[in-house]
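User: Design a sequence. Structure:
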């Protein structure tokens, strides 16, 4: 950690009853090769001991802040976190998801060199409770997979052509893979908590109209599938 008083990146983590997953989540942040960040946990009314755990954590670590709220949902929790964030860029991470070690460094490097980029995201792997891989995100979306195959092969970040149209076709963006510019987020007023669903999708579309969107085909996040009811959907894709 280099500077908590003037961090470049603010990591915003909504939490609701994810005590069992918080140590791993934090470990994936601590293993980042990029270190100029702050962490803002927004506890959304947890009853599993998360609040007590996060209170002790924030008291012992100056780069970790805790915001307490009461069941406003993840979008509202993220909005609260961004409102108090100090960083130029916001990186979202759900409390039960994980990052690979180079995730922040790569996004910061690209977005620093491309000031018109307001949103970047990565490919990610769905995993189960046993940390077994299920399917990469981009492989699940046929339109986006065709787009990737039509591009020159690269593992680097690249600007997404016709971003609004591409994002409208398929909700390919995993929230825990996102880094966005804080000023752009505030400009489009963040997550719309009045929407009954898909407030994340709505936000990506709004951001895509405010500037460039970039992505990498490399897996830089692991998304935990906690409900077995969702697994058959991905298993069907694997059989195709």
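Assistant: Done.
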């Amino acid at each position: 950690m280099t500077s908590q008083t003037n961090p470049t990146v603010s990591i915003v983590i909504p939490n609701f009853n994810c005590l069992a997953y918080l140590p791993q989540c934090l470990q994936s942040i601590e293993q980042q090769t990029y270190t100029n960040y702050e962490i803002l946990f927004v506890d959304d009314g947890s009853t599993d001991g998360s609040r007590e755990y996060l209170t002790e954590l924030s008291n012992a670590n100056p780069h970790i802040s805790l915001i307490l709220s009461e069941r406003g949902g993840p979008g509202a929790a993220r909005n609260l976190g961004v409102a108090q964030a100090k960083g130029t860029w916001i990186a979202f991470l759900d409390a039960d998801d994980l990052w690979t070690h180079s995730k922040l460094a790569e996004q910061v490097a690209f977005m620093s060199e491309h000031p018109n980029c307001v949103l970047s995201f990565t490919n990610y792997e769905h995993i189960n409770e046993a940390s077994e891989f299920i399917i990469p995100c981009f492989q699940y979306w046929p339109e986006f997979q065709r787009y990737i195959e039509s591009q020159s092969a690269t593992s680097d970040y690249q600007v997404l052509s016709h971003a609004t149209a591409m994002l409208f076709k398929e909700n390919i963006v995993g929230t825990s893979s996102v880094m966005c510019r804080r000023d752009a987020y505030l400009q489009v007023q963040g997550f719309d908590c009045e929407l009954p669903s898909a407030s994340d999708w709505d936000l990506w579309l709004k951001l895509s109209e405010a500037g460039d969107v970039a992505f990498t085909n490399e897996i830089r996040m692991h998304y935990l599938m906690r409900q077995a009811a969702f697994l058959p959907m991905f298993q069907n894709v694997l059989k195709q």
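The mean pLDDT is 91. The radius of gyration is 17 Å.
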